[in-house]
Protein backbone atom coordinates (compact mmCIF):
# COMPACT_ATOMS: atom_id res chain seq x y z
CA UNK A 1 0.00 0.00 0.00
CA UNK A 2 1.33 3.41 -0.96
CA UNK A 3 2.25 5.89 1.72
CA UNK A 4 -0.38 8.59 2.34
CA UNK A 5 0.70 11.93 0.86
CA UNK A 6 0.67 14.62 3.53
CA UNK A 7 -0.07 18.28 2.75
CA UNK A 8 2.55 20.79 3.83
CA UNK A 9 1.31 23.85 5.77
CA UNK A 10 2.70 26.18 3.09
CA UNK A 11 0.96 24.20 0.34
CA UNK A 12 -2.27 24.31 2.34
CA UNK A 13 -1.91 28.08 2.65
CA UNK A 14 -1.39 28.34 -1.11
CA UNK A 15 -4.68 26.48 -1.65
CA UNK A 16 -6.57 29.47 -0.22
CA UNK A 17 -5.48 31.63 -3.17
CA UNK A 18 -8.06 29.88 -5.36
CA UNK A 19 -10.75 31.74 -3.37
CA UNK A 20 -9.79 34.76 -5.52
CA UNK A 21 -11.81 33.27 -8.40
CA UNK A 22 -15.27 33.37 -6.75
CA UNK A 23 -14.45 36.62 -4.93
CA UNK A 24 -13.66 38.36 -8.24
CA UNK A 25 -17.06 37.28 -9.59
CA UNK A 26 -18.79 38.41 -6.38
CA UNK A 27 -17.17 41.84 -6.63
CA UNK A 28 -17.88 42.18 -10.35
CA UNK A 29 -21.57 41.30 -10.01
CA UNK A 30 -21.80 43.23 -6.71
CA UNK A 31 -22.90 40.18 -4.73
CA UNK A 32 -22.58 41.32 -1.14
CA UNK A 33 -21.37 38.08 0.40
CA UNK A 34 -17.59 38.55 0.29
CA UNK A 35 -17.45 39.46 3.98
CA UNK A 36 -19.66 36.50 4.90
CA UNK A 37 -17.45 34.14 2.86
CA UNK A 38 -14.25 35.38 4.50
CA UNK A 39 -15.76 35.13 7.99
CA UNK A 40 -17.00 31.60 7.21
CA UNK A 41 -13.56 30.53 5.97
CA UNK A 42 -11.85 31.94 9.07
CA UNK A 43 -14.39 30.25 11.35
CA UNK A 44 -13.92 26.97 9.46
CA UNK A 45 -10.13 27.13 9.94
CA UNK A 46 -10.38 27.89 13.67
CA UNK A 47 -13.07 25.27 14.29
CA UNK A 48 -11.23 22.53 12.38
CA UNK A 49 -7.98 23.32 14.19
CA UNK A 50 -9.78 22.96 17.50
CA UNK A 51 -11.42 19.74 16.27
CA UNK A 52 -7.98 18.34 15.36
CA UNK A 53 -6.73 19.08 18.88
CA UNK A 54 -9.60 17.70 20.94
CA UNK A 55 -10.43 14.79 18.65
CA UNK A 56 -6.81 13.66 18.93
CA UNK A 57 -7.26 13.68 22.72
CA UNK A 58 -10.70 12.02 22.56
CA UNK A 59 -9.44 9.28 20.25
CA UNK A 60 -6.53 8.55 22.60
CA UNK A 61 -8.82 8.45 25.65
CA UNK A 62 -11.48 6.39 23.83
CA UNK A 63 -13.66 6.54 26.93
CA UNK A 64 -17.40 5.75 26.63
CA UNK A 65 -18.40 8.63 28.94
CA UNK A 66 -16.19 11.18 27.18
CA UNK A 67 -17.35 10.02 23.75
CA UNK A 68 -21.01 10.15 24.84
CA UNK A 69 -20.53 13.63 26.30
CA UNK A 70 -19.09 14.82 22.99
CA UNK A 71 -22.10 13.38 21.13
CA UNK A 72 -24.43 15.23 23.53
CA UNK A 73 -22.57 18.45 22.75
CA UNK A 74 -23.10 17.80 19.02
CA UNK A 75 -26.81 17.17 19.61
CA UNK A 76 -27.25 20.46 21.49
CA UNK A 77 -25.30 22.43 18.87
CA UNK A 78 -27.58 20.95 16.20
CA UNK A 79 -30.69 21.74 18.26
CA UNK A 80 -29.86 25.42 18.78
CA UNK A 81 -28.76 25.82 15.16
CA UNK A 82 -32.05 24.32 13.96
CA UNK A 83 -34.14 26.44 16.33
CA UNK A 84 -32.33 29.58 15.18
CA UNK A 85 -32.63 28.87 11.46
CA UNK A 86 -36.30 27.85 11.62
CA UNK A 87 -36.94 30.92 13.84
CA UNK A 88 -38.57 29.16 16.76
CA UNK A 89 -38.59 29.97 20.48
CA UNK A 90 -36.12 27.62 22.18
CA UNK A 91 -38.18 27.12 25.37
CA UNK A 92 -40.87 25.15 23.53
CA UNK A 93 -38.56 23.14 21.30
CA UNK A 94 -35.35 22.27 23.15
CA UNK A 95 -36.94 19.26 24.91
CA UNK A 96 -38.73 17.70 21.89
CA UNK A 97 -35.72 18.26 19.62
CA UNK A 98 -33.37 16.75 22.20
CA UNK A 99 -35.55 13.65 22.62
CA UNK A 100 -35.81 13.28 18.83
CA UNK A 101 -32.06 13.70 18.29
CA UNK A 102 -31.03 11.37 21.11
CA UNK A 103 -33.56 8.69 20.10
CA UNK A 104 -32.56 8.69 16.43
CA UNK A 105 -28.85 8.51 17.28
CA UNK A 106 -29.39 5.70 19.79
CA UNK A 107 -31.41 3.61 17.31
CA UNK A 108 -29.08 4.14 14.33
CA UNK A 109 -25.82 3.68 16.25
CA UNK A 110 -27.08 0.58 18.05
CA UNK A 111 -28.14 -1.02 14.78
CA UNK A 112 -25.19 -0.15 12.54
CA UNK A 113 -22.35 -0.24 15.07
CA UNK A 114 -23.70 -3.15 17.08
CA UNK A 115 -25.36 -5.40 14.46
CA UNK A 116 -23.87 -4.42 11.09
CA UNK A 117 -20.21 -3.61 11.86
CA UNK A 118 -20.39 -5.80 15.01
CA UNK A 119 -18.01 -3.73 17.12
CA UNK A 120 -16.96 -5.26 20.42
CA UNK A 121 -16.87 -1.74 21.82
CA UNK A 122 -19.81 0.25 20.40
CA UNK A 123 -18.46 3.53 21.82
CA UNK A 124 -15.16 3.22 19.92
CA UNK A 125 -14.36 6.86 19.08
CA UNK A 126 -13.03 5.95 15.64
CA UNK A 127 -16.51 4.79 14.57
CA UNK A 128 -18.95 6.23 17.12
CA UNK A 129 -18.10 9.94 16.78
CA UNK A 130 -17.66 10.28 12.96
CA UNK A 131 -20.77 8.23 12.10
CA UNK A 132 -22.90 9.99 14.72
CA UNK A 133 -21.59 13.35 13.51
CA UNK A 134 -22.57 12.59 9.91
CA UNK A 135 -26.06 11.53 11.00
CA UNK A 136 -26.58 14.63 13.16
CA UNK A 137 -25.11 17.03 10.60
CA UNK A 138 -27.35 15.77 7.82
CA UNK A 139 -30.37 15.56 10.12
CA UNK A 140 -29.91 19.20 11.09
CA UNK A 141 -29.87 20.37 7.46
CA UNK A 142 -32.97 18.39 6.49
CA UNK A 143 -34.74 19.27 9.74
CA UNK A 144 -34.40 22.95 8.94
CA UNK A 145 -36.17 22.48 5.60
CA UNK A 146 -38.81 20.07 6.91
CA UNK A 147 -39.62 21.96 10.10
CA UNK A 148 -39.76 25.29 8.25
CA UNK A 149 -42.25 23.75 5.82
CA UNK A 150 -44.33 22.32 8.68
CA UNK A 151 -44.58 25.38 10.90
CA UNK A 152 -44.88 27.88 8.06
CA UNK A 153 -47.69 25.74 6.65
CA UNK A 154 -49.53 25.74 9.96
CA UNK A 155 -49.10 29.50 10.27
CA UNK A 156 -49.94 30.51 6.70
CA UNK A 157 -52.59 27.87 5.96
CA UNK A 158 -54.28 27.65 9.34
CA UNK A 159 -57.75 27.74 7.72
CA UNK A 160 -57.16 24.34 6.14
CA UNK A 161 -56.04 22.88 9.48
CA UNK A 162 -59.13 24.15 11.33
CA UNK A 163 -61.37 23.02 8.48
CA UNK A 164 -59.95 19.49 8.64
CA UNK A 165 -60.03 19.51 12.45
CA UNK A 166 -63.69 20.58 12.49
CA UNK A 167 -64.78 18.02 9.91
CA UNK A 168 -62.77 15.05 11.15
CA UNK A 169 -62.67 15.82 14.87
CA UNK A 170 -59.21 14.25 14.82
CA UNK A 171 -56.08 16.39 15.14
CA UNK A 172 -53.88 13.62 13.74
CA UNK A 173 -55.92 13.50 10.53
CA UNK A 174 -55.93 17.31 10.33
CA UNK A 175 -52.13 17.47 10.67
CA UNK A 176 -51.39 14.65 8.24
CA UNK A 177 -51.14 16.88 5.09
CA UNK A 178 -48.74 19.26 6.87
CA UNK A 179 -46.55 16.42 8.14
CA UNK A 180 -46.52 14.76 4.70
CA UNK A 181 -45.45 18.04 3.08
CA UNK A 182 -42.72 18.58 5.69
CA UNK A 183 -41.31 15.07 5.22
CA UNK A 184 -41.40 15.38 1.43
CA UNK A 185 -39.71 18.80 1.37
CA UNK A 186 -37.19 17.85 4.04
CA UNK A 187 -36.06 14.55 2.53
CA UNK A 188 -36.33 15.19 -1.22
CA UNK A 189 -32.79 16.68 -1.46
CA UNK A 190 -31.36 13.64 0.35
CA UNK A 191 -33.25 11.23 -1.93
CA UNK A 192 -31.91 13.12 -4.96
CA UNK A 193 -28.37 12.91 -3.56
CA UNK A 194 -28.63 9.14 -3.02
CA UNK A 195 -29.89 8.63 -6.56
CA UNK A 196 -26.74 10.11 -8.17
CA UNK A 197 -24.00 8.89 -5.81
CA UNK A 198 -21.30 7.25 -7.89
CA UNK A 199 -22.58 8.77 -11.14
CA UNK A 200 -21.93 12.49 -10.70
CA UNK A 201 -20.61 12.65 -7.15
CA UNK A 202 -18.21 10.85 -4.85
CA UNK A 203 -19.16 11.42 -1.19
CA UNK A 204 -16.65 13.04 1.16
CA UNK A 205 -16.36 10.04 3.47
CA UNK A 206 -15.66 7.62 0.62
CA UNK A 207 -13.13 10.00 -0.95
CA UNK A 208 -11.45 10.45 2.42
CA UNK A 209 -11.15 6.70 2.96
CA UNK A 210 -9.65 6.17 -0.50
CA UNK A 211 -7.18 9.04 0.01
CA UNK A 212 -6.39 7.52 3.41
CA UNK A 213 -5.33 4.27 1.75
CA UNK A 214 -8.48 2.12 2.03
CA UNK A 215 -9.53 -0.17 -0.80
CA UNK A 216 -12.25 1.38 -3.03
CA UNK A 217 -14.40 -1.71 -2.42
CA UNK A 218 -14.20 -1.29 1.37
CA UNK A 219 -14.84 2.45 1.02
CA UNK A 220 -17.94 1.79 -1.11
CA UNK A 221 -19.34 -0.73 1.38
CA UNK A 222 -18.93 1.78 4.20
CA UNK A 223 -20.48 4.51 2.07
CA UNK A 224 -23.57 2.40 1.38
CA UNK A 225 -23.96 1.75 5.09
CA UNK A 226 -23.45 5.43 5.93
CA UNK A 227 -26.04 6.60 3.38
CA UNK A 228 -28.59 4.16 4.80
CA UNK A 229 -27.78 5.37 8.32
CA UNK A 230 -28.07 9.01 7.27
CA UNK A 231 -31.36 8.52 5.44
CA UNK A 232 -33.04 6.58 8.25
CA UNK A 233 -31.52 8.87 10.89
CA UNK A 234 -32.75 12.02 9.10
CA UNK A 235 -36.22 10.51 8.65
CA UNK A 236 -36.49 9.47 12.29
CA UNK A 237 -35.15 12.79 13.57
CA UNK A 238 -37.54 14.86 11.44
CA UNK A 239 -40.66 12.80 12.17
CA UNK A 240 -39.95 12.54 15.90
CA UNK A 241 -39.19 16.27 16.08
CA UNK A 242 -42.58 17.07 14.54
CA UNK A 243 -44.59 14.53 16.56
CA UNK A 244 -43.02 15.42 19.93
CA UNK A 245 -43.19 19.16 19.20
CA UNK A 246 -46.94 18.87 18.62
CA UNK A 247 -47.38 18.29 22.36
CA UNK A 248 -45.91 21.76 22.96
CA UNK A 249 -47.28 23.90 20.09
CA UNK A 250 -51.02 23.24 20.38
CA UNK A 251 -53.26 24.27 23.26
CA UNK A 252 -55.86 22.06 24.95
CA UNK A 253 -58.41 22.99 22.26
CA UNK A 254 -56.14 21.89 19.42
CA UNK A 255 -55.33 25.47 18.35
CA UNK A 256 -51.87 26.19 16.96
CA UNK A 257 -49.96 28.61 19.21
CA UNK A 258 -48.56 31.25 16.85
CA UNK A 259 -46.37 32.67 19.61
CA UNK A 260 -43.98 29.69 19.35
CA UNK A 261 -42.76 31.21 16.07
CA UNK A 262 -40.52 34.26 15.97
CA UNK A 263 -41.93 37.05 13.83
Feature tags:
263 residues; 2 domains; mainly alpha
Write a structural description.
It contains ten helices and no strands. The chain has 263 residues and is mainly α. The chain folds into two domains: 1-61; 63-260, no CATH class. Helix 4 crosses helix 5 and helix 9 runs antiparallel to helix 10 (216-249).
- Total beta-strand segments: 0
Structural class: mainly alpha
Number of domains: 2
Q: Strand portion, in percent?
A: under 5%
Radius of gyration: 21 Å
Main sheet: strands, sense, barrel: none
Mean of residue pLDDT? 87
Helix content: over 70%
What form results from the Cα inertia axes?
Answer: globular
CA-CA gap between termini: 58 Å
Number of helices: 10
Uncertain regions spanning at least 5 consecutive residues: none
Can you write the helix and strand succession as a string? HHHHHHHHHH
Amino acid sequence: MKEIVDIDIIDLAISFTILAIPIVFFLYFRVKIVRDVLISVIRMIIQLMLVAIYLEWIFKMNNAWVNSLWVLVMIFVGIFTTIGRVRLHWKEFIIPFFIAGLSSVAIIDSFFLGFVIKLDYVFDARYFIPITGMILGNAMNHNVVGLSTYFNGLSEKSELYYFLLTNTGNSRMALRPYIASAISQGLNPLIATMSVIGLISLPGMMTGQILGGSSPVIAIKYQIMIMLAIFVGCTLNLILSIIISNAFVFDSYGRFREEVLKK
